[in-house]
Write a structure and sequence with these properties.
By secondary structure, the protein is mainly α. It has helices at 3-25, 33-44, 69-73, 78-106, 115-123, 132-136, 149-172, 182-186, 207-212, 227-245, 248-257, 259-269, 274-280, 288-309, 332-338, 343-349, 355-358, 379-396, 424-431, 435-442, and strands at residues 50-55, 62-67, 142-146, 321-325, 369-373, 414-417, 455-458. The chain has four domains: 47-146, no CATH class; 149-309, Lysozyme (Orthogonal Bundle), CATH 1.10.530; 321-393, no CATH class; 411-462, Roll (Membrane-bound Lytic Murein Transglycosylase D, Chain A), CATH 3.10.350. The protein has a three-stranded antiparallel beta sheet with strand order 2-1-3. The chain has a two-stranded antiparallel ribbon with strand order 4-5.
């Protein structure tokens, strides 16, 4: 065999082996393919202004698709379209329910059916249940699903800036890197996602679960909001579930349904096969979201791979950053100045910092791993100098007793050495004194400026 042909054979063999390993890791039961196909369409084809009316068990049974995009094109406001969408969806669901009940009562003579009735009838042509139409008309079967194309594609656009670091974390924890796409299902990779029950971040951790997996969650720092810190916690949680359930489809479903619930489902059905569990388990809390979570994951992998192949996929350049562990607390404005940037940039790079910190009411706590722009190579030096300077300032500000006039005890005045770029306004704000008092204490006229290296006296606050 020629050398080039031999090398090609090796490459193809390695590719086939990798594909086989991935197929074994994330199996695709044939019974779930209709669900996977349905979610691929929801993620990549249907707009947020389209609503799919379908059966909640057999997702390939689609009754109709409502399209509200023409109303947007006509100039309707977002609020007007939303109200119309909700009203029309409720009305059309009832129309489908009425059709199903009519078919059940009248036996569904194909010759007397209109176009819509005939479409519904044909969907159940191969269903042998005598009560198939009545069962399909139930509240738990008749379902509407809104398209997610815009949100999902935006999630992919943002996520692709974090996926390389997230995949590295998962590999370090010994987990398949494909699991980093789960946030596309949980939150559409919305960095600011909050749920009604208190879950936060791209992984939608609850506060107690976040703390259990070593994340800081309080009023100052909430690491659930940090994509990389929460990814490390997610890797540990998924690893623990996989150790308990010994199956990635079950562990992934456990992320939504809870590991105990999935264990109970597998025990009652008598198998760990996800396809069988989805079709046969009817636990009270094993609803539409839990039954579809693994199929959604497979669909997300498909859409991610497909859109990744498209030339010119949209990418937004995010700021390069580097981390520095703070050995002292520091205000966000000071941190921004030392990093040579602004407060908004520090807040953007550190989504775990909560509102009081970003607003400047609370300092960034000691021990926090602060991300600063990648070009801020002097940050470590500057913050070390700041710490040293403040330590000297604290020592010089201690009131050493000394004899003054009439034997009174006086104190050594507190001083500050001016740094490049500082103004009296900066210094006054730092020491919480007025600019006028600084000028009076140092004999500075209104037109006189300060220079780097100059030592000025800080007046005592009244």
């Amino acid at each position: 065999m020629p050398r080039r042909s031999f090398q090609l054979a090796l490459i193809l063999s390695a590719f086939t082996l990798t594909a086989t390993v991935r197929a074994e890791t994330f199996p695709r039961p044939a019974v779930l393919e209709p669900q996977v196909k349905f979610w691929r369409s929801i993620f990549s084809e249907y707009s947020k202004y389209q609503v799919v009316l379908h059966d909640a068990v057999d997702l390939d049974k689609v009754y109709k698709v409502l399209d509200f995009r023409p109303y947007v094109d006509q100039g309707m406001t977002e609020g007007e379209v939303e109200r119309l969408l909700r009203a029309e969806t409720a009305y059309e669901l009832e129309r489908v329910r009425t059709t199903l009940r009519w078919l059940q009562e009248n036996g569904g003579d194909p010759g007397s059916l209109g176009a819509e009735e005939r479409h519904v009838y044909d969907l159940y042509r191969n269903d042998e249940s005598p009560y198939r139409f009545l069962e399909a008309a139930g509240d738990k079967r008749l379902h509407s699903q809104r398209g997610l194309r815009e949100k999902f594609m935006e999630g992919l656009r943002v996520g692709r800036h974090f996926f390389p670091d997230m995949e590295r974390i998962f590999r370090e924890e010994g987990l398949p890197p494909e699991l980093t796409r789960l946030p596309l299902i949980e939150s559409c990779f919305n960095l600011n996602a909050y749920s009604k029950v208190g879950a936060a971040g791209i992984w939608q951790f609850m506060p107690a679960t976040g703390r259990h997996f070593m994340m800081e969650v309080n009023a100052v720092v909430d690491e659930r909001r940090d994509p990389l810190a929460s990814t490390r916690a997610a890797a540990r949680f998924l690893s623990q579930m996989h150790d308990d359930l010994n199956s990635w489809p079950l562990a992934i479903t456990g992320w939504n349904h809870g590991p105990d619930g999935v264990y109970r489902a597998a025990r009652e059905v008598g198998t760990s096969d996800i396809g069988t569990i989805v079709r046969r388990y009817h636990g009270p809390s094993f609803g539409f979201a839990s039954r579809n979570f693994y199929a959604e994951f497979l669909a997300a992998l498909d859409v991610d791979r497909e859109t990744g192949r498209l030339e010119g996929a949209p990418v937004t350049q995010l700021l390069r950053s580097r981390q520095h562990r703070l050995d002292r607390s520091v205000g966000i404005e000071v941190a921004a100045r030392l990093a040579g940037t602004d407060r908004d940039t520090i807040a953007e790079l550190n989504p775990a910092l909560m509102g009081p910190v970003v607003a400047g009411h609370r300092p960034i706590p000691r021990g926090y791993h602060l991300r600063v722009p990648g070009g801020s190579s002097q940050f470590e030096t500057r913050i070390a100098e700041l710490s040293a300077e403040e330590q000297v300032t604290r020592v010089s500000a201690v009131e050493y007793p000394r004899r003054g006039r009439m034997g009174a005890r006086t104190a050594t005045a507190q001083t500050h050495r001016v740094k490049s770029g500082q103004t009296l306004s900066h210094i006054a704000k730092r020491y919480k004194v007025s600019v006028a008092s600084l000028r009076n204490a140092n004999g500075l006229g209104k037109k006189k400026t300060i220079k780097p290296g100059q030592v000025i006296r800080i007046p005592r606050k009244a």
